[in-house]
Amino acid sequence: MAIVRKTLIISGLQIFPAESGGQIRTATLAEALAESGDDVTVYSFTGRKRDYFAFAKSTSTVISKNITEYTNRNLIFGIIQYFCYRFNFPPFWLTLLLAFYLPRELRGLLLKTDNVLIDFPFLYPAGRKSRHGYVLNTHNVEVNLCAGGIRRSMIAYVEKNAMRSASLVLSCTTADLEYFKKHYGLPASKSRLVPNALNLAKIESALQTYNKEQIRANLQIDQQTSLILFSGSSYFANTEAFKFIKSFCIEKQNFLRAMNIKFLIAGTVSDMPINSEFYLATAKVSDVHRYFIACDAAINPVSIGSGSNIKMCEYIAFGLPILTTHFGARGFQLQHGVSCFYFDFNDLEHVLLTAFSEKDSQRNESIARRAMMDNRKQIDMRENIQTEPIFF
Fold first, then answer.
1. What is the DSSP letter of 284?
2. In what order do the strands lie in the sheet with 168-171?
3. Are strands 39-44 and 6-11 parallel, antiparallel or unpaired?
4. Cα 157 to chain center, whole Å?
């Protein structure tokens, strides 16, 4: 009988159900490890806001056959994390707490596990208390999300120490990996590129489940409208991108009306539902995938942040031709006019004209297929993990 390996993922935030790009990265990593035979437990230090309002207790939830998530809903932890999020302050509280204290449930899990994966560098003191060492999963170069001053120095201190004591560091882009090597002295032997990726089986299931025409009918959008998707959470890079789309809709009303183009904004990047002439915002939804299927193309006007965008993986997997800034495409193999349409903030009108004026659906389908062909391995987390395991 095969020995089942126990893997513990330690996260600052509840992971399942995944509602943001960072949560999707960690969730798909957990799913890929489970599919390779690991018994995966996720320990999350804080839950979702709605659960605190419902006075929910800390619980262990079976996510799937080989995945369980324990969510700590200690009210003090939740309040601290809320204010860190609200004021865009790094979660140093977790680093300080874990240097001196481990919650009882986490102590027990660390004793029973074979492998430990730390999700974000701020949690690294917990990994140092594991008998087996730990793998550090990064989502960004955290220090690059801060402008400067003492806060930036503190982040750099935490990030560097987290990498020094890790047995392996996972980076989501080559640029991040090279930064860690250059600025933190991370040796190549401890570096591994694991791009942001998806559980493609879930995407394929969604593609077979939903009907494009029916979804558009439910949204009251006719089949002749060119519907362009932008998806995202309330992460600041997404909210800035949404501001650009709204400004573009105001400035280019005549063009959008003449071209019969409308934007669909899916996810918590909009804090309320909006249905204007030129864009429809869903706000928070239980299943965002049906909106991908309703659209004719996707846009990524992100210009700030670090790491790579999960939304780009989703756009590619759903077969949507992509309009993107060069910054938004970082980490992906894309060529203008071959596998995507690049734009900057001054020429989006021209690029939209190129993409939609001739209604060349075959050309756009070919561009989407090429993007998938060039990036398929990268966006499939299961293949990434099974080809080159992260635990030995």
1. S
2. 59-64, 67-71, 39-44, 6-11, 115-119, 135-137, 168-171, 191-193
3. parallel
4. 25
Question: What sections of 12-120 are H helices per DSSP?
Answer: 21-35, 49-53, 75-86, 92-100, 104-112
Query: Are β-strands 6-11 and 322-324 bridged in parallel, bridged antiparallel, or unpaired?
Result: unpaired
Domain architecture of the chain: domains with CATH:
6-194 (3.40.50.2000), 206-378 (3.40.50.2000)
pTM of the model: 0.90
pLDDT along the chain (392 residues), means of 10: 84 95 94 95 97 97 97 98 92 98 98 97 97 96 89 97 98 94 97 94 90 95 96 92 98 97 97 96 92 97 81 97 96 96 96 83 91 96 88 76
Name which of 361, 294, 38, 316 is nearest 203 in CA terms.
316
Pick the closest to residue 370 from 300, 327, 322 (CA basis): 322
Q: Which of these, 123, 138, 228, lies nearest to 176 by C-alpha position?
A: 138
Q: What does the alpha-carbon distance between residue 324 and residue 159 come to, in Å, rounded to a whole number?
A: 30
Q: d(Cα 26, Cα 119) in Å, to the nearest integer?
A: 7
Best CA proximity match to 24, nearest among 13, 34, 35: 13
DSSP state string for 341-383? EE--TTSHHHHHHHHHTT--HHHHHHHHHHHHHHHHHHHBHHH
SS3 334: coil
* Cα–Cα distance for residue pair 42/237, rounded to 1 Å: 27
Any bridge partners for residue 283, and if so which? 266, 267
**Confidence (pLDDT) at 235:** 87
Max CA distance (Å), the chain = 68
Sheet containing strand 261-266, strands side by side: 274-275, 279-283, 261-266, 226-231, 297-300, 322-324, 341-342
Q: Identify the CA nearest to 292 among candidates 273, 319, 272.
A: 319
The reported pLDDT for the residue numbered 4 is 84
